[in-house]
Write a structure and sequence with these properties.
The protein is an all-alpha fold and 265 residues long. It has a single domain, classed as Farnesyl Diphosphate Synthase, CATH 1.10.600. The protein has 10 helices and no strands. The longest helix is centred in the last third of the chain and has 29 residues, at 235-263.
């Protein structure tokens, strides 16, 4: 999908200055293999929450027109946050946060430091890469209304993984704390990351066009999150139907609003 390719390029550009070369290549390999579902869902959420799905196109033309106007008439930078390239950058931020947390989860479960020296060296590189991915993702979302949700996503991940570790160790220390909502199943606890990242994607896309995610869009994403588990399939295998349903819901909401206003006094 074109959207997936655009988001992947934006994510790669965000970490283009990472050094040394070995670390840069490690991060590039992660992004090259990654499913772009979180990033593409961000774009689709922006389109679905826009007026008849045309916000991205309309804002592109407006921002291009602004570039030819005198400086005194130039809109503030925040006015062009809806430009497709800017929304792709925000989508890349969501993707980077997910890839960093996913890598952290994998390293925590596999514990490669207990194996060979070579495995331990790769694990050290992986931890550093995970930190960079999350940090760059935060940077890309820092000046958006989704920044708070990004922070809560990382905090929730930390609590869930601590609880999972306690459960695996047979500890009852966190059993009655109410942390998480998935009982004592480690796989379900792990899947909270994918669910939270999808919610972050929807939030990021919606606020990029000055909207709040609709309950119906949240419902569609919740169904999708329940189906994907702890990994995302390729975009082309799963988001085609989601795109259609999200746009359909947007049109339904618009039709309902018009019908209601027509009967108002």
């Amino acid at each position: 999908m074109e959207n997936a390719d655009s988001c992947r390029r934006a994510a790669v550009e965000a970490v283009a200055d990472v050094e040394p070369p070995r670390l840069h290549e490690y991060i590039d390999s992660i992004l090259d293999r990654a499913s772009m579902v979180p990033a593409v869902l961000t774009l689709e959420s922006a389109a679905a929450m826009g007026a008849d799905g045309r916000v991205l196109e309309d804002e592109t033309e407006r921002c291009r027109d602004a570039e030819s106007e005198p400086d005194r008439d130039r809109p503030q930078a925040s006015d062009c946050d809806r430009e497709p390239a800017r929304i792709e950058t925000h989508a890349a931020g969501v993707q980077l946060i997910y890839e960093g947390l996913r890598l952290t989860r994998s390293l925590a479960h596999d514990e490669p430091w207990t194996a060979t020296d070579a495995d331990a060296s790769d694990a050290d590189l992986g931890i550093l890469a995970a930190d960079i991915l999350v940090a760059r993702g935060f940077y890309l979302l820092a000046r958006t209304d989704a920044a708070g949700k990004a922070v809560r996503t990382v905090q929730s991940f930390g609590r869930d993984q601590t609880r999972r570790a306690d459960l695996e160790a047979g500890s009852e220390a966190s059993a009655g704390t109410g942390i998480g909502t998935d009982g004592g199943d480690p796989a379900s606890i792990d899947a909270s990351l994918e669910r939270d990242v999808l919610e972050l994607a929807v939030r990021t896309g919606a606020v990029a066009v000055g909207e709040t995610p609709s309950p119906r869009l949240h419902a569609v994403v919740a169904e999708f999150a329940a189906a994907v588990g702890t990994s995302f399939p390729p975009v082309e295998d799963c988001l085609t139907d989601l795109e259609a349903r999200a746009r359909e819901l947007s049109l339904e909401d618009s039709t309902t609003d018009r019908a209601t206003s027509a009967t108002d006094p």
